[in-house]
């Protein structure tokens, strides 16, 4: 872990921090602050500023930790830390600060067992230094038991380690060796190095030959440039170290352009022809571009393409990698000899479609797929086999017309219901009418027009007044330009046409301009005077004018000005951005700091407040930074595991407790930290609506069946309303009810308190059977379940569904990541990549059944 700050336990109790590697942090490895009864074991804190820090913390245990090569100090125990036990740790640091406190211990009783430096007894700690002059490095062990013959008096404290560890007489320095998963390849080349040293190493130092290094045991390193690299590993333990060097071990080459090749199958056939293409290019291509020869392309590595027309097709593939691209063209690679016969798709039109009897109608076939035969049914008992027949309707009525089109591949039928309308009186012209919505707004404006003409028009002609027209009955039209538009509709049928015009009907305005949002940055924001600063406008909303106030009495109207601060001081900068819609101002207080040349910049003096400081959860607290000294960065620690880099954040506390607030403020001179202990007090949770829940026993049996219901609702309900599904109810908390009649019953519970109510329903929960089935054997559930989605990137939320039969009454899910649930249909979040095996056990009165689905959920890294 290299996050800059390490692992913090603040106001923590009963926690375990184990098997972590904390390295290269500028502050701490592990911190205990105001914490008690925690266990810190099996961790490595190396190359940090401070290894392990115990501040105002009591009754904690530190054992089995390796604390080495920390630049400021290895272990710090403050004088307000009491009754802590520190044993079996490997300390190898130049500085250790251990103050007295009360009741601390630095060894246990001498007990047989393997200690941290592979000796045969447990007792105290190994107290070494990197230069080999530490107590444990030089202590005498005449009997060879790995325990110093004399106690170690811990400097600066009242304590001694009575059983300090020393290197066992039989322990030797390791014999360094290593291997890697690859030793050559194109750049960038990722290599996994594996330590193969013999003899129990406790520290590793790798040199990869390209100017980079690592202290991990098995590091992964990426070589970005071509070349031959010599790799060195130094493996160390308390007895010494050994170095292994492999000359020109890693060979990294410059990638070559791909050598393109491919095939496709089949290469001939009737259209439509589906062809699967396979890329067999060498040289590790990373991108592909196929040209199928019919005007279409694809970027898939192995595409499938459908050719619709006969012909000979030339295929071209371009493959690309980091070194460049190559193209291969295979001329006339595919041959489509013809089109397989297709069943036709029947279609037709007629004119006219309405009129008085006798009405002569001409039908026009517009079927596709090359039909060879036609069968018409005119709806009045007559038929025709002509492709484009004429037919006379002699009697008034409404007629449905059917056409069946046929060829060698088959037939297809289309029916137009009530298509022909024959009247007995002279047809009437339609009366055109319409409406629109909306009729006004800003451009671009989408308008839907609705025809409300009477007289059965058969065609429509719209003119939208902006040069556009439509023949659709109910069209949609977009007005792109501001203006007032006159709309005309002409409605037509066999008897004639009618036109209606609405003048100035549609009014379109311009889109209202938006006031800009002012924003800016500057570089640098601090330095010696005279200080030249470049300001950059990042306002949104298209400002057209800018007004800068640099805080030293000067101004500018340039969008991105440069300004020189001639006098030392701290300056507040303001930008006002303006356009036709208005203006907006952004102010950055104490944004620029100019100091006199030769003087030393001062770190900020941190201070802050928050309000409110107490209340019920969830509690929203607003924090205000009042730091002096022109800070330019802030880091808040809210004491509940969350942080913020805002200057004045608002934070919501979800749980009751006392919270320590810490603010780190930084400027060019450095950073300062202020902690306010138990600053925020969350005393409880405001009243919440209850969450209804219940169980019953038994849930199945012969009628009459007595069932005891047990309320398990949360949220402190004060009233209960039961519906037993057989027409009866109860307001008792945990009632007993008798089911007199055989059947399956759904039970509902509503739980209520002052904050509201909540209802839970269990469908088909109670099963009562008739007495004639008495003596039959109940059946275990038949289990079934599924989850969705079954794959994705972390974090992945999966919904699980139980579909078991046999009236199960209890469920136990195991999600494969160490967590479980007893909800029937749970949701679960997978936070880490991996393949997860799911197990569900369902239970009823007859027993339990389980199913396991191996590697059922697959989660990839984000």
UniProtKB/TrEMBL annotation:
InterPro entries: Carb-bd_sugar_hydrolysis-dom, Ig-like_fold, NosD_dom, Para_beta_helix_rpt-2, PbH1, Pectin_lyas_fold, Pectin_lyase_fold/virulence, PKD/Chitinase_dom. SMART domains: CASH, PbH1, PKD. Residues 174-257, 258-329, 344-427, 430-513, 516-599, 604-687, 690-773, 781-862 form the PKD domain. It comes from the Archaea. CDD domains: PKD. This is Cell surface protein. It comes from Methanosarcina lacustris Z-7289.
